[in-house]
């Protein structure tokens, strides 16, 4: 990690102009979004495969710890999107690079202008949840925070497993190719790399409306605090049906992905395009970052490439499986049992409707 340490030290020492800091911020926000993407794809798949776990994951996101993280995530997505458009435009018209400093400032200003109303909308949901609804008893707040941290342990274990698989793949590749561990060679231009360079620009532009639409619906119109209380799903028609008397995150996903317009499951198609584009764009960007900081060792560089490849393949497989598997109504029964556990954890009284539902289920 010598190269990474050098980058951090020299960035702080150099104290460069806005261009340098926008480069650093673009990388940091990109890595942050990719890490969230891995978390989000896996936990959303639980709505189909492990409904109880999904209910608990959403409960974790409704804790103060993750509430702060949600605001940071939205900032990262919006800034990275606008700055990515700036980079794509300048790469398309290199003569404009002389205006890059002014454009970097414009990106920051535009980001803040967009985030001001977005954050206000998100904050209103937060205040309603914590204060108006008093959804978490004060003496249970620490329990909820600890619960939220523990719920993320499976993701850490999964990441360690993927990292181990990447190291094994890199070692096997080294043996097959006969590549040693000598000094790293400067990367050579190739048609494959030129394709990925172009893909990053084109996909970055295509992703923006998809991601912004997703953020608007799932973080502002109906944020993480609403999907356990909503009787209807934003972006669907009344004919799609209404959520039961005791809403759950699983039933929210069930209704969203069951919505069909003209015989097409609109939100499944939408989310599939989003999944493919964001995963390929995000993990190829992560590959650029990691290979920059592993240039001192061919083995470390190959491990970084293998890590990004394996993680992207796993997320695409898991996400696609969740989108295409037939949705069974019994996943809601499992979600209701987990919802009862969440009420108890938060110190809330179990609604009579939920008690009746569980009694009937027994």
Count of all domains? 1
Order of helices and strands: HHHHHHHHHHHHH
What does the overall shape look like?
globular
Q: Strand pairing plus helix content: what structural class?
A: mainly alpha
- Strand count: 0
Q: What does the main sheet amount to?
A: none
- Distance between the terminal alpha carbons, to the nearest Å? 56 Å
Helix percentage: over 70%
**Overall mean confidence score, pLDDT:** 82
Uncertain parts = none
Number of helical runs? 13
**Rg over alpha carbons:** 23 Å
Question: What's a concise summary of this model?
Answer:
The chain has helices spanning 2-14, 18-49, 51-61, 64-92, 100-132, 141-151, 153-177, 191-221, 249-258, 266-292, 298-324, 330-346, 352-361. By secondary structure, it is mainly alpha-helical. It has one domain (15-361).
């Amino acid at each position: 990690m010598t190269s990474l340490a050098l980058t951090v030290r020299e960035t702080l020492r150099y104290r460069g102009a806005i261009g340098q800091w926008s480069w650093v911020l673009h990388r940091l926000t990109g890595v942050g979004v990719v890490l969230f993407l891995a978390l989000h794809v896996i936990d959303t798949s639980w709505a189909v495969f492990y409904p109880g776990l999904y209910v608990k994951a959403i409960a974790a996101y409704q804790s103060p710890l993750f509430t702060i993280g949600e605001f940071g995530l939205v900032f990262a997505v919006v800034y990275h999107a606008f700055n990515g458009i700036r980079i794509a435009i300048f790469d398309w018209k290199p003569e404009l690079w002389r205006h890059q400093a002014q454009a970097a400032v414009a990106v920051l200003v535009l980001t803040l202008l967009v985030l001001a109303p977005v954050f206000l909308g998100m904050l209103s949901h937060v205040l309603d949840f914590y204060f108006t609804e008093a959804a978490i008893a004060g003496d249970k707040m620490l329990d909820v925070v600890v619960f939220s941290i523990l719920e993320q342990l499976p993701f850490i274990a999964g990441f360690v497993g993927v990292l181990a698989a990447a190291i094994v793949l890199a070692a096997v590749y080294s043996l097959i190719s006969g590549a040693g561990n000598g000094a790293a060679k400067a990367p050579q231009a190739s048609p494959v790399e030129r394709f990925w360079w172009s893909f990053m620009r084109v996909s970055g532009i295509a992703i923006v409306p998809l991601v912004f639409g997703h953020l608007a619906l799932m973080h502002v119109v109906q944020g993480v605090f609403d999907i356990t209380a909503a009787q209807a799903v934003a972006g669907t028609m009344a004919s799609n049906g209404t959520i039961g008397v005791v809403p759950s995150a699983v039933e929210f996903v069930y209704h969203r992905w069951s919505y069909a317009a003209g015989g097409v499951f609109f939100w499944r198609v939408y989310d599939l395009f989003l999944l493919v584009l964001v995963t390929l764009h995000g993990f190829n960007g992560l590959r650029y970052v990691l290979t920059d900081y592993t240039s001192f060792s061919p083995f470390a560089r190959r491990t970084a490439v293998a890590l990004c490849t394996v993680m992207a393949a796993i997320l695409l497989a898991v996400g696609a499986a969740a989108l295409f598997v037939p949705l069974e109504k019994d996943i809601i029964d499992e979600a209701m049992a987990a919802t009862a556990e969440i009420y108890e954890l938060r110190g809330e009284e179990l609604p009579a409707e939920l008690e009746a539902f569980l009694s009937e289920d027994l």
